[in-house]
Every structure is written in structure tokens, then in C-alpha cells.
Design a protein that fits this description.
heterodimer, A: 646 residues, alpha/beta, 5-stranded parallel beta sheet, 23% strand, globular, B: 131 residues, 4-stranded parallel beta sheet, 48% helix, 18% strand
Chain lengths: 646, 131
């Protein structure tokens, strides 16, 4: 029994020596002392020396929280040849000295805590750790920039990766962009080395048009079922494009946000990977021309949906974001052809689309004389339920405003903003540069946009909050900086993976500061915007962190699992299986005789089964009914004795 | 005496945070570590009361944020059943209460503790007046 002073933290609030003396008188206590700092090297040596000299088989240290220094002392007793779980930590700092005003009360409370700790220590049982084999393979869901980065980083560590993407090509939103801030680089130029690297990496298997349909198992050993939709074109496609030439069906390309056209057999964009064409069954009229013209007979209408099972050790979720749909805000009339979102503008600026990269008014192709950019559409807006700031809209609005000004120097470009948020290196500088380009900044959120019923003009109503004057701006085009939201289908996938979600719909991280790449479930990591809106720089960094967290689980080849799991006493078990109905990880099965049976690998030691058991047959090691009872008695008995004496 | 079963995640985290912030609360509250609020069943509650506790509290994570998915909700159901049982037996249902806390915010658990002491005091004074 060791009582720590923790400098003045404990000794300044209660009588440490009295507590140590009291502990010496408790049953089973062989040795009791107090020390200035138990966690110091001298303190740990003192503990080891006492274990050696008095042949102690259990130790109790009354100091700080279990989280803080249980591992320190457990390691020390392990070095002395004992099971680390023979050490019991009593918290008399956070739970006693720091929260109690009165000297006597604090001392009494510490004494009862110590009494409980000693009682508990006497009943502690050794816990073994089991080495569980892990499958050295990772599944990355989503092949946007985050998924690609995570897949590449893992593959470079020698860990095979299965990359699952629901679209026909990999690359995600980044491939749709025209330029990236703050360097105005071409995103395809920066991304394509990674795209090609992933596509050609021997350790990466890419599954496009695929979605996760079932997830079973736990960390180190997941079984994931992936459903692949048919592409109707075999891999021997040479991407010659003859099928697309003869296809009679033509309609707006989703990837181009409607600013380009595609056929029913198509490739979303020229550099798309994999370069195999895709037949869109929904729009196809089944004329069969593509089958006839294909020189390698790659087109095959008989392909079927496929289901495959993968055994993986960890899962990285990188499903990205969706652009907020501004239709919800009726005052902004998003259905008007001349009101577009930033992502649509990015596509309009691309040279492969209908406008050939020129900025033209969508309704009639006239060069706009005045363009208004509206910030915070669908973010920082409680009315639509998104209170958060997307954090990238200011930057891309500055970028696109600058590009418009470069293309059309005589056009007036307005940005209506609430605040310009440009934190970080080179971002504020980028804002300064945009100001010098002659963009007109108006601080105020527009109340509404009034489309002219006879002409193509639009009028934007906004209050300039600097002058307090209402302003009316005549505009040819309005661009809405729509925020990022969690992808709509994520609820289903999140449910399959067993992830907690934040109220905004994004996946909840393990800890906002210390574990932003971990999810609420062990072995499932988060990469990129699925955890919250962020820009490409942060997404890539986040994906790298997720990859290294996934690798941490797998590189050793085994997991150490503490077997402080549930255990069933068959003599008491009445086969009611109340335990299995409350077990969340689904760790309780039925054995051949009908008794409950615990799968140690899946058990998370929460103990909900023990609370549900009517007979007390199922117990959690080191939190058994008997142990908790002794601890409670320890806490109460001392006070009862004192109370009786008074 | 009040026995507070605190779950390993949010409740103990919150109690530690409260300590770090040097918040003060009733010294009669004794914390017992459990892995999850779900670990606490009727046996633990009855045993604590039998051994001289005036009331028992169970503190878990916020509903919907249990680290084991829904252990706190399962225990909430148990606590409600226990309260009904106490009422039928002629005891005060406030002898057992379920609370939640947030690890990052020490004041959440201190709020729970204050409520516990208030309820316990009210219960004890009622008992005295009944006698």
C-alpha cells in the first residue's frame, strides 16, 4: 500500500500520513508507506523494492487516476514478475483531494477509498493477453483523393489494399475541379501521378461500381461483402471510343454537372481510370450498335451483378462529401438556369465541356457583365440545420472570382460574404491578392435573388452591413458557394460499419484532438471529409494519418487482446440468453448444450451482460459481482464504523 | 453516503476533468469504477443499499454516445424498473438514479452530483419527518 503526496496536490488537502497509517491496519496489508511522488523514478523503485523485500503479491497505489498512472505501476509490478493486473490504482487526487474543501472530510473520504482499494486488490485476478492473428489487408471505401492517398500509403508499407468505389472511375471530387487554391495549380496534374500509381500498384485491387453490402467481424478480422454492379464492358476494352461514337443516346454528363454531354456507353472524362467504358443500363435503348462496332468484343450485355467477400484487418472510410443542394433555400431560386453552384462553375471552366472553358451565361451563352458570388449557402445557416462553417468556400470563391476576373476583366465580380475565413499559411496572402484584382466585396448575406421574368437578368438584394445600406445588384449570373454536407447514403454504410455519427451526419471521430482519424469503432478509420469538411491539403494529411493508424494494427501481424472479457459459469447459467440479447458486439453465442458462450475476440468487456444475467452466471473478469460488492462494502464500511463511534 | 457507479469512458473522464478544474462537490459521494453503465444491474444497486448507502447513482455516457452502443440505455431501463419496484415496496424511488456526463465537461458530472446530493437530502429529511 503506497500513498502518494503528489507534491501539494494531495498532501495539501488531506493528511497523507494518517491515510497511510490507517492502511497499515487494514487486513491483508503487509506494508504501507507514503511518498512525495510515486510516479517518479524513486517512487517506482520504492514500490519494486517493497515488492521484493516483503514478497508482496498485490500492490495498491493511492494517487491519481487510472488513466494517468495505472500503466506506470502495472509495468513496474510486471517487471517484478507479477501479472500487471495485480496492481490496483486508487484515485485520491481527482476524486478526493481536488474536489473536497474540508481537510477532515477529504482525509476520511481518502481512507474509505483506500479501504475499498485494498479490499478490491485482494480479489484481483490475473488477466492474460492473447495474441490474435490479424489479416494483413485493408479495405479503403471511397476512391477520392483521401482514399487514394490512404491506399497508396498502405500499399507502400507492403499492406495489400482493396479500394472500393461506387462510381465507374476513381478520383472523386478533386478531378472535377478546375484549379486548386492557393497556388492555382491544375488538380488533375497534381492528382494523376497518384491516380496512375494506385491503378498500377500490384498491391492495390480496385473495385469500381461497387458498394459495401455487409460487414462482419471485428478489428483485425473483418469479413466485408462487396456488391459490384455490372459494367457491361469487359476489361479487354482498349478505350478506342468507337462504341461511344455510334451510340445514339446522348444526355447531360453527371460528372460534368450538366455542362457536358455523354452517351449511354461512355467514359466520364478522358483521363478516367480505369479507362474501360461503361454502359449505363438506365439510359441504354439496347440497339446493340456498340456490341457490333467493338473491335475486341468487350461489350457484353449479359454481365450480372457480382458479390464478393473480402477478409480484411482494418477498414478506412473515405467516402467524402456531397455538395449541399441549394434548392432548399427557395429565396435563391437555384432552379433558374443562370444561378449555379461553385462545382458547376468549376466544370464550366474546364476545356472539355460545352462552353469549352469560356464563362458564358448558361441560359443564352452571352458573356456575363456582372457576376455575384454568394457565400455560406447551406453552411453557417441554422435554418437549414448546418451551423458549421465548411471552411473552404471562402477560399474557392476567392479563387474562382480571380479566375473570372482574369478571363473577363471588364466584368464586375461581387462576393457577398459574412466573414472571409482564410486561416493558415498562404491563405490570407491569397485573400490579399484577390482584393487587388478588383473584386468587389460586400459584407452581408443576400436576403433573396429576384429573377427578371422577361429578361435573363437577376437582382440580388443584400444589406451592406458596413454602411447599413440595402444594396440591389443587377447580375447576369449568380454563383452559390454551396457548403459540404455528409453524403446522403452514408447512413446505410455507417450502420453496416457500426459507426456513430455526429448530428450533422458526418462520422464521429474517436477524439476530436487526439484521434480525428479513428472512428467510434476499433479497426475502422476515417479519412478526409467524411469526418467533417476540410480542404485538400488537410484531407491528404488526414488520409495519411488514417493509413498509419490502420498500419499500426496490422504491421505486427498480431493484436494483443486483454482477456478481461466475460466468462460464463455453466453451473449457474439457466440458458435464458438475456446476456446475448443485450450484447452489442454480438460476442455471445450458444454452445452445443444451449449455454451462453463468449467469443473472447469480439467481447469488449462492457459488462452489460453481467447486469442482465438473472443468476449472476456471466461475469466480467475483475469487475465481477463479488469484486464490486467488496469495493462498495469497503467504501461504506469504514464510514459506518466511524458513524457508529460518533 | 452516495454510491456513484461511473462508467470508464465519459463518467470517469468527466469526474477526472472536474478534479482537474478543482470543482467542489459533496464529499459523501463515493465513486465506483465500472467499465460501462450497463455493468450495473439490480444486484449491485441492492447490495450498495444493503450495505448502508443512502442512495445509488449510475453515471454513463450521454444517450446515443455510449462507447458500447447502448449500455447506458439498457441501464436506464433497469433503473426505471427499480424505481417502480421501490415505489411499490414503499421506498423512495429516488434511492436510485441514472445520470449522464460528458468527459470533456467537468461541470456535467458536478451537476449530476449536486442533483444526487439534493435528492438524497430531500429523501433523508422526508424519512426523518415520517418518523
Amino acid at each position: 500500500m503506497f500513498v502518494c503526496h503528489c507534491g501539494e496536490n494531495i498532501a495539501g488537502k488531506l493528511d497523507v500520513e494518517e491515510v497511510a497509517e490507517f492502511a497499515a491496519g487494514l487486513p491483508n496489508v503487509e506494508f504501507s508507506t507514503d511518498n512525495l511522488f510515486m510516479c517518479s523514478k524513486q517512487g517506482v523503485e520504492l514500490l519494486k523494492e517493497a515488492v521484493r523485500r516483503h514478497k508482496l503479491n498485490r500492490t495498491v497505489v493511492a494517487s491519481c487516476s487510472v488513466e494517468q498512472h495505472w500503466p506506470t505501476f502495472a509495468r513496474a509490478v510486471e517487471e517484478m514478475g507479477l501479472n500487471p493486473h495485480m496492481h490496483e490504482q486508487v484515485n485520491i487526487r481527482e476524486w478526493v483531494s481536488w474536489v473536497t474543501n474540508d481537510w477532515d472530510n477529504a482525509t476520511e473520504k481518502a481512507k474509505s477509498a483506500v479501504a475499498a482499494g485494498v479490499k478490491m486488490a485482494a480479489l484481483k485476478e490475473p488477466i492474460e493477453t492473447q495474441k490474435l492473428d490479424v489479416v494483413k489487408k485493408v479495405m479503403v471505401i471511397g476512391a477520392g483523393v483521401a482514399g487514394l492517398r490512404a491506399a497508396m500509403d498502405l500499399a507502400e508499407l507492403g499492406i495489400p489494399v482493396v479500394l472500393v468505389e461506387k462510381e465507374p472511375s476513381i478520383g472523386g471530387h478533386m478531378t472535377m475541379l478546375n484549379k486548386t487554391f492557393p497556388t492555382d495549380e491544375c488538380p488533375m496534374c497534381t492528382l494523376s501521378p497518384l491516380l496512375n500509381g494506385v491503378a498500377n500498384h500490384p498491391d492495390i485491387e480496385i473495385l469500381t461500381l461497387s458498394e459495401v453490402s455487409k460487414v462482419e467481424g471485428s478489428v483485425g478480422n473483418f469479413v466485408v461483402e462487396v456488391t459490384t454492379k455490372p459494367r457491361y464492358v469487359h476489361d479487354n476494352c482498349t478505350s478506342c471510343g468507337r462504341c461511344s461514337e455510334v451510340c445514339p443516346v446522348e444526355f447531360p454528363n453527371e460528372w460534368d454537372m450538366g455542362f457536358g454531354m455523354r452517351k449511354a456507353i461512355y467514359k466520364p472524362y478522358p483521363q478516367a481510370i480505369p479507362s474501360t467504358f461503361t454502359r449505363d443500363k438506365k439510359h441504354c435503348i439496347e440497339c446493340g450498335l456498340c456490341e457490333i462496332v467493338c473491335p475486341v468484343q468487350a461489350v457484353d450485355f449479359s454481365m450480372k451483378k457480382e458479390k464478393r467477400e473480402f477478409n480484411v484487418g482494418a477498414i478506412v472510410v473515405a467516402t467524402g462529401y456531397e455538395q449541399y443542394d441549394p434548392v432548399e433555400i427557395t429565396a435563391y431560386h437555384y432552379d433558374h438556369p443562370n444561378i449555379i453552384t461553385q462545382l458547376e462553375l468549376e466544370r464550366m471552366l474546364a476545356p472539355t465541356t460545352l462552353t469549352k472553358g469560356k464563362i458564358l451565361r448558361p441560359s443564352d451563352g452571352k458573356v456575363p457583365e456582372s457576376v455575384v458570388i454568394i457565400q455560406c449557402v447551406g453552411s453557417r445557416n441554422d435554418q437549414v440545420g448546418n451551423a458549421y462553417c465548411t471552411g473552404v468556400c471562402c477560399m474557392y470563391a476567392l479563387k474562382n472570382a480571380g479566375i473570372i476576373k482574369e478571363h473577363l476583366p471588364n466584368t464586375d465580380v461581387y462576393i457577398c460574404y459574412i466573414d472571409i475565413r482564410a486561416p493558415g499559411l498562404y491563405y490570407e496572402e491569397y485573400y490579399k491578392k484577390a482584393q487587388e484584382k478588383g473584386i468587389i466585396f460586400i459584407r452581408g448575406r443576400p436576403s433573396n435573388i429576384e429573377p427578371d421574368p422577361y429578361e435573363e437578368k437577376l437582382t440580388v438584394f443584400v444589406e451592406d452591413t458596413f454602411t447599413g445600406e440595402p444594396v440591389e445588384i443587377e447580375a447576369d449570373m449568380v454563383i452559390l458557394s454551396a457548403g459540404m454536407i455528409a453524403p446522403k447514403g452514408f447512413g446505410k454504410l455507417g450502420g453496416k460499419l457500426g459507426l456513430l455519427r455526429a448530428k450533422e451526419g458526418f462520422a464521429k471521430e474517436y477524439h476530436i484532438k487526439m484521434g480525428p482519424m479513428r472512428s467510434s469503432r476499433e479497426g475502422v478509420l476515417l479519412a478526409g471529409t467524411i469526418q467533417g469538411p476540410r480542404d485538400i491539403t488537410k484531407t491528404v494529411a488526414h488520409a495519411g494519418a488514417a493509413a498509419s493508424a490502420a498500419a499500426q494494427i496490422l504491421v505486427k501481424g498480431f493484436l494483443e487482446k486483454r482477456l478481461d472479457t466475460a466468462i460464463v459459469d455453466k453451473d449457474l447459467c439457466i440458458k435464458c440468453l438475456a446476456c446475448s440479447t443485450v450484447c452489442n458486439p454480438g460476442a455471445i453465442d450458444v454452445d452445443v448444450d444451449g449455454y451462453a458462450f463468449v467469443n473472447d475476440t469480439a467481447c469488449k468487456s462492457c459488462g452489460t451482460c453481467a447486469g442482465a444475467c438473472p443468476t449472476g452466471a456471466i461475469q466480467i473478469r475483475n469487475f465481477r459481482d463479488a469484486q464490486l460488492k467488496e469495493e462498495v462494502i469497503g467504501l461504506l464500511e469504514y464510514n459506518r464504523l466511524v458513524g457508529a463511534a460518533q | 453516503m452516495i454510491i456513484a457507479f461511473a462508467c470508464e469512458n465519459c463518467a470517469q473522464g468527466s469526474a477526472n476533468t472536474a478534479g482537474v478544474l478543482r470543482m467542489k462537490y459533496d464529499h459523501r459521494i463515493k465513486i465506483v469504477r465500472v467499465p460501462c453503465a450497463g455493468r450495473v444491474g439490480p444486484r449491485q444497486i441492492i447490495e450498495a443499499l444493503n450495505n448502508g448507502a443512502d442512495s445509488v447513482a449510475i453515471i454513463g455516457c450521454c444517450f446515443g454516445a455510449c462507447h458500447y452502443n447502448d449500455g447506458n440505455l439498457i441501464t436506464l431501463r433497469r433503473v426505471k424498473a427499480m424505481k417502480r419496484m421501490f415505489e411499490e415496496l414503499g421506498f423512495d424511488p429516488d434511492m436510485v438514479n441514472m445520470y449522464t456526463a460528458r468527459a470533456a465537461e467537468g461541470d456535467t458530472i458536478v451537476g449530476d452530483f449536486e442533483d444526487m446530493s439534493a435528492k438524497t437530502d430531500a429523501m433523508l429529511s422526508k424519512e426523518v419527518s415520517n418518523e
